């Protein structure tokens, strides 16, 4: 990365702390203006820590979605990063339809209908 000397120094300190297991936690949150290199730095950190290091990128707009809670969004991103797939198992029941009867309530004065 060109420039950003202080950011690169901070990144190397954080990487060393992670390697020395001096950081408690499982994630690093980077915040800044668009185009400042947050994603590039995070990808570089993940690569330098090894292939088994999970990496997930989340935009701020995803966290403030009306469709899902923040916790659900973060959980899905975490699962995606560590490649966990939750498989739903459903049971299918096979059968043959022999006859269909539709019962309709009779209207006053009309004949009862079935069909």
List the helices and strands and how they pair.
Elements: H1 5-19, H2 38-49, H3 60-63, H4 70-81
Helix pairs in contact: 1-2
Report the average pLDDT across residues.
Answer: 76
**Helical run tally:** 4
- Give the tally of β-strands: 0
| H/E series | HHHH
Strand content: under 5%
Global geometry:
elongated
Can you give the helix content as a percent range?
25-40%
Q: What low-confidence regions span 5 or more consecutive residues with pLDDT below 50?
A: none
Give me the Rg, rounded: 28 Å
Kindly list the characteristics that best describe this protein.
115 residues; 4 helices; mainly alpha; 37% helix
Description:
This protein has 115 residues and is mainly alpha-helical. It has 4 helices and no strands. It has helices at 5-19, 38-49, 60-63, 70-81. Helix 1 packs parallel to helix 2. The longest helix is centred in the first third of the chain and has 15 residues, at 5-19. The radius of gyration is 28 Å and the shape is elongated.
